[in-house]
């Protein structure tokens, strides 16, 4: 980890409780709420002086939060970057102040990889690929897809779109006929799906949603149009929140690929290891599964988010 030595000297100096600032994207989805809670609960368990900033969906709020964490001389900054680009100046400020930055959930694009200590999250490309491969099998490589994209410019929207496109390119009968952002929100998914149904009507066979909240919003629009989600229109989605697993059991979502948000313990373990001067993995990916009608019932009771 590029910051290992720097981190060791900065963090081990503190006898006081560890002070960590977390710049979260916002509260756009059930996934996000579960992720925030995982971080807050774990920080409380460990007696960490934890400063939580809700970016309310705006990069400028997250940048402001990072500057405030620097001014408060936190021991480490955790950032879930809402979009991929535009972070270099503020991360340079953190580096100059000797504060390591741990990226979680989403990656960034930067020419200077030394601006962050390490990354912890899911492999969004793999999630998109899993969704596409499952779908291709389900529909025998034929169908007209509408895509509900996540927040424009965000790593999950970019990667899930790219992976899905790459995978369905192998099936000439599978086509994306329309694609728009619902911003990872339930209301966004509903609104965009209403517009898709108005424009394309019965030509739509499949919805690919970049997250469950948008899929659940789309289900409302589909039902309001008098159609049966999961039957008239196949729905594949990502996150595997409890409500979506229930929708799989109810036959309204056909498949949801997991994106596990419960990695608070892993984040604080990593910060503790960095503090002890240990080398940590540069990029660490969570293991994600896929749920459909064959396995959803078996996991619903133990689903934590
Ligand atoms: O970055 C992870 C994505 O962000 C989740 O899939 C989505 O639900 C969230 O808002």
TrEMBL record:
SUPFAM superfamilies: Periplasmic binding protein-like I. GO terms for cellular component: cell envelope. It comes from the Bacteria. Its main location: other. Keywords: Signal. Residues 20-257 form the Periplasmic binding protein domain. InterPro entries: Peripla_BP_I, SBP_2_dom. One of its GO terms (molecular function) is carbohydrate binding. It is found in: Cell envelope. Belongs to the bacterial solute-binding protein 2 family. This is ABC transporter substrate-binding protein.
């Amino acid at each position: 980890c590029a910051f290992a030595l720097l981190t060791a000297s900065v963090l081990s100096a503190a006898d006081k409780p560890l002070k960590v600032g977390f710049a979260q994207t916002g509260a756009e989805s059930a996934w996000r709420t579960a992720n925030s809670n995982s971080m807050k609960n774990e920080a409380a368990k460990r007696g960490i002086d934890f400063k939580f900033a809700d970016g309310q969906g705006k990069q400028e709020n997250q940048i402001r939060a990072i500057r405030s964490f620097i001014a408060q001389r936190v021991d480490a900054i955790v950032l879930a970057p809402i979009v991929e680009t535009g972070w270099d100046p503020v991360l340079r400020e953190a580096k100059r102040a000797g504060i390591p930055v741990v990226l979680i959930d989403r990656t960034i694009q930067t020419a200077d990889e030394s601006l962050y200590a390490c990354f912890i999250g899911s492999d969004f490309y793999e999630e998109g690929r899993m969704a596409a491969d499952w779908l291709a099998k389900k529909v025998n490589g034929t169908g007209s897809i509408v895509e509900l994209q996540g927040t424009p410019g965000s790593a999950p929207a970019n990667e899930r779109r790219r992976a899905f496109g790459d995978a369905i390119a192998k099936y000439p009968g599978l086509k994306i006929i329309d694609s728009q952002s619902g911003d990872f929100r339930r209301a966004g998914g509903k609104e965009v799906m209403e517009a898709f149904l108005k424009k394309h009507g019965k030509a739509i066979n499949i919805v690919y949603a970049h997250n469950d909240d948008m899929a659940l919003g789309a289900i409302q629009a589909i039902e309001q149009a008098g159609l049966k989600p999961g039957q008239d229109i196949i729905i594949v989605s990502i996150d595997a929140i409890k409500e979506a697993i229930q929708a799989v059991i109810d036959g309204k979502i056909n498949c949801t690929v997991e994106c596990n948000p419960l990695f608070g313990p892993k984040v604080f373990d990593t910060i503790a290891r960095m503090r002890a001067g240990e080398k940590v993995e540069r990029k660490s990916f969570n293991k994600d599964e896929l749920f459909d009608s064959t396995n959803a019932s078996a996991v619903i009771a133990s689903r934590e988010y």
